[in-house]
Design goal:
It is a single chain. The chain has seven helices and three strands; from the N terminus they run αβααββαααα. By secondary structure, it is mostly helical. The protein has a three-stranded antiparallel β-sheet.
Length: 152
């Protein structure tokens, strides 16, 4: 049986598809009432499943009942997402977080299976084993450089 988080994620993705837009406005409390869960459960899904490394931008609007805006952005067509990913990478990134970004690129046909494999090998701990310190810093720079080539 699917977990509630999975069900909420699929529901939101279906709303995005049905909307035929790359943007969706939802009320967090209404969604929580619909699923009979706490609003914090909705926040959890949004912060863990709708991240920039998966191609989403989430904005929270306060006042007037408030709403959440979820945007699905294509890497190739929006340089702002590339900038957001670079900000998320920051000065340091773990191998696991890097893999999520690369998997997103592959799932959205922005890199081939072979290119994804090469990227993963280049940033794994074994490849960086000669570095005694700052593996995550080096990995971040390496990943940013690979992504910058993709955005051309």
């Amino acid at each position: 049986m699917a977990r509630l988080s999975d069900i909420i994620e699929e529901f939101i993705k279906q709303l995005l598809q049905d909307n035929d837009e790359s943007e969706l406005q939802i009320q967090r409390n209404e969604l929580a009432n619909y699923f009979r869960c706490a609003p914090s459960q909705i926040n959890y899904v949004l912060t863990t499943r709708f991240t920039t490394d998966r191609g989403y931008y989430v904005e929270s609007k306060r006042g007037g009942g408030g709403c959440i805006i979820i945007k699905h952005v294509d890497f190739n067509h929006d340089k702002r997402l590339m900038q957001a990913v670079n900000l998320q990478i920051g000065d340091s990134i773990t191998f696991d977080k890097s893999i999520k970004i690369i998997n997103y690129l592959q799932e959205n046909n922005l890199v081939s299976e072979r290119e994804a494999y090469i990227m993963k090998v280049a940033i794994n701990d074994r490849s960086l084993s000669l570095l005694q310190e700052n593996k995550n810093t080096f990995r971040a720079e390496l990943l940013k450089n690979m992504l910058s080539v993709l955005s051309v």
